[in-house]
Amino acid sequence: MFSSTWNRAAIMSAGVMSATAVAQPSYHASWSKVELGAWTLTPVYSEEGGAVLSVDGFLALADPSTRLGDNIVAVWYERTAEGWSAKSWGTDDPWKAIATVKELMGIGDDEDERWDAPSMGDPDAAPAVPEEYVVGVLADDPMAALIAASPERDSIILTMVALGYQAADVPVDGQDECSLAAKMDGLAAAILETLTGDAGTAMTRAQNTWLASPAAACGSISKVGLSGGVTVTPFGPWSPPVYSCQDGIIVSNPSDNLPGDNGILTCRKETWTETRTQTETRTKICITGIWPPSISVITQSRTCSERRITECAICSPRDTQGSPPCPPAGTPPPAKPLQPPAGPQPIGRCAYDQVIPVRIFPWSANCGPWSPVCP
To answer: Are strands 264-288 and 294-317 parallel, antiparallel or unpaired?
Structure first.
């Protein structure tokens, strides 16, 4: 059974249509992040009237380079009336998890780059039904009860992950003196400081809030990175397109009665690739070691690129004009569909004026690493 919060999106939609509905907060993915080993936790916060209310969830995504076999790649931690719940998916596509959380919380596509998703999976993935998740595995896993009761839970999970089993080693699930709720409350309180108040003091306040939290002494998350205050430089103009073309042969159905050469058409495929870049900067707190921790505050930057591909095809009967020559390199894509060549017009299914734009999304999938790294 889903928790009542799983129907939040539907309830909000119904509220909008009700004349007596009270105002509902909106939910957003945060630029701020929690970094724990191979896992990055993106906070989801609520906002009403331009004011941030609270941090209501974290979507944990694994570094794909660390995953093996059927390892779990995403876990959703959500604040509930009872504390914090956890759900996951039997999928290796992080975008399926993102799509589900977006639908649940009513978060728009315009915030896709905030998830900082790894460059894998399908950005257009459909939402998937989540499953209950406990102590590193799905709740219906035959091993779940044994793992939960074992004092060697951490060693068991690490072994399962190394063997490619459907398990996750998210540090907040680690076995220590702290409950999951205590850890998530501490992280949420620290992240909230990066979303409110004066931007110039946000990271200092986040650092102090974390150190004052009982969760700072939890052994499983003693090494944590908190980042916030991301500044994004807008993308520059599209660079001159890089042009390439490819010739091929299309054989049309003989019943189309194409003129000349038994209905064989000579076709040309043209491809334009354009790129542009932007730079992102953020402030990061690196907290390492055991209590008392050592702390460093650094400003990091990374460069992201976006690519756009446009393809079009031209076909003509071989015995008339053949394929026109390719235009010079750097010729921009056509502003309107290409016109068919002069001469007899074939009646086949070859598209004379097909122009297919293809956008590579999301931008964050094409970002380089943050630099410099934590000292």
So the answer is: antiparallel
